[in-house]
Amino acid sequence: MFEFSLMAVVLVVAVLIGARLFDRRPAAEYGLSLDSEWLRSFAVGGFIGIVVNAGTLLAALAVGWATVTGFFQGSDSLPFLPAMLLVLAYIGVLASWEEFIFRGAMLKNLAEGADGYVPRWVAVGIALLISSGIFAFMHSGKVVGLSGYSYYLLAGLIFGCVYALTGNLALPMGFHVFYNFSMSAVFGLGVSQQTPEVFVLNVSGPTVWIGEEGFLRVIFAAVGGMLLIGYIRWRDGSLGIDHRITQWTPRFGNVNGRETGGENTYPQGDHE
Q: Regarding beta strands 258-259 and 66-73, do their DSSP bridges make them parallel or antiparallel, or are they unpaired?
């Protein structure tokens, strides 16, 4: 409980300090508007994350790599429902922190910095690759082979692409939170996290396929990415880099001689 509370405080402080002192922008510009549309997109992302893990479980059961041995176990001294809610809160804060750091702060700032020196799509592509590479590297403690890095690199690319297409953290954050939660606490597919489980599994298949970073996870993570992009295409009617990814709106009307505006503005001679 102490660790969860500390992480929650760190997340809030990181957003507030990052926005106010370092980026000097409204916190909402990271893609954290938290209005009804944001919450709807968060829920869609979460639903897709759950569907992806359900598909992984069904595939593992179909080929005999896993069998169900029980239900609603592993809550220890806590009642099952409070234990699940505590796990959801813990995973939610951790996944939200990662999305803010690697997408909302890192990807956005890298894209803003490169925009104007190279075409926007190149700037966003560079930011996407760098942030995804660092995201994969930061999960090195969980990786046991090269495929593990490809799993986290793919995850970073999916989250980053969705963020670049929407300019909003709702979809990637919802997917990330409920993908991690349902993988472990609902479908019993977690390895690195010990949580209460709705489905208790005996996993006997090859680790390279059914392990936490196995190829089956990579395949269904890619399916999740396609579902997210398909939803964006259906909702928005088209796909394209959202202008907010390279937009900086100062918190004050004028910063260092630059007027506040919808798009990046540059001092004389800094942008051609």
A: unpaired
